[in-house]
Amino acid sequence: MKIIGHRGAKGLAPENTVAGLRKGLEHHVDELEFDLRVTKDKIPVLHHDKDLADPAGNRLAIAKHTYKELKAHKPDLATFDEILEVIGRKVPLYVEVKPEVPVKPVVTVIKKHLKKGWKPEDFRLASFSQHTLLELHEQLPQIQKVVLERWSGVRATRRARQLGTKDIIMKRRWLWWGLILMLAGSGYKLGTYTINNPRQAKRWQRFGLKSVVTDFPDRFKKSK
Q1: What percent of the chain lies above the pLDDT cut of 70?
Q2: 200 φ/ψ angles, rounded to the nearest 5 degrees
Q3: CA-CA distances (angstroms) from residue 26 to 33, 106, 221?
Q4: What's the number of domains the chain is made of?
Q5: What is the per-residue pLDDT across 82-109, written as a single tens digit (0 to 9) for each?
Q6: Residue 30's closest CA among 124, 160, 165, 120?
Q7: pTM of the entire structure?
Q8: At 109, which CATH number?
Q9: Cα distance between residue 210 and residue 75, in whole Å
Q10: Ordered DSSP codes for 122-148
Q11: Does a structural domain hold residue 105?
Q12: How far apart are CA 195 and CA 213, in angstroms?
């Protein structure tokens, strides 16, 4: 079963940061997951929410501020380009592009690194937005797409067929052994988020679960 570090290793280090991704690597994840948003000056940055909140309580909409402005409030705010340079190709990167985020800046960064020797298999591109995934698929058809789905297996498979992918990641709360068995039997590579209990993951693995997104990769794989 594939172990995917959630936002790097959210339970062990600051999420969506260089430090967080390095912590995931320290615990030998199979993939690193992180979120992308795009700043006013079209720079993809690692951040989950639409707004950035600083220690003083200020909230800044990422889409309405430049990277320099945001960085002044969050010194460890990392760009997508920086992550590719610093983290490198140690494991595949599972990149979640948030809904309504313009995909062109993301595509530009990926294409730049493909020209520098990165391979399509170094990335997986995911989103809850089908529109976003279709745009990404049009621009980067060679890179695997992942359908993110909160609760509906029917909707997830419909979206996957439209994209020509077998990769689906569903919310843990709505999974049960029958659904896992059905999707696995239909050839889907089903994963779940966010799961921090290895025993539960192992039970579901018996029915065909292929991957888990976890805040605590140390619970799943021992550090060497």
Answers
A1: 99
A2: -65, -40
A3: 14, 26, 10
A4: 1
A5: 999 999 999 999 999 999 999 999 999 9
A6: 124
A7: 0.96
A8: 3.20.20.190
A9: 36
A10: GEEEEES-HHHHHHHHHH-TTSEEEEE
A11: yes
A12: 6
